[in-house]
Amino acid sequence: MAIAPITGMLRKRFFFDLSFGLSVGVTSAYAYWYLHHLHTRTLEQEYYLKIEREKM
Predict the structure, then answer these.
(1) 1: pLDDT confidence band, cut at 50, 70 and 90?
(2) What is the pLDDT of residues 7-22, one digit of tens each?
């Protein structure tokens, strides 16, 4: 009983892992930027505007 050779599996797995990793990484970066970073900057700018208005 011979085992059939595994051909092309390493290459297929490599491209799958590479494309999956890049897509998850890019999606995570966009989610961080638009959901967290820009919201934090907006709150920070509003806070500094409030302080400037109180000084006048």
Answers:
(1) low
(2) 677 777 888 899 999 9
Query: d(Cα 54, Cα 28) in Å, to the nearest integer?
Result: 38
Give CA–CA dist 34/37, Å, rounded. Answer: 6
Q: State the Cα–Cα distance between residues 6 and 44, nearest whole angstrom.
A: 56
Note the pTM of the prediction, 2 decimals: 0.65
29 contacts: CB under 8 Å, gap ≥ 6:
none
d(C-alpha 24, C-alpha 22), whole Å: 6
Q: How far is CA 35 from CA 11, 23, 44, 45, in A?
A: 36, 18, 15, 16
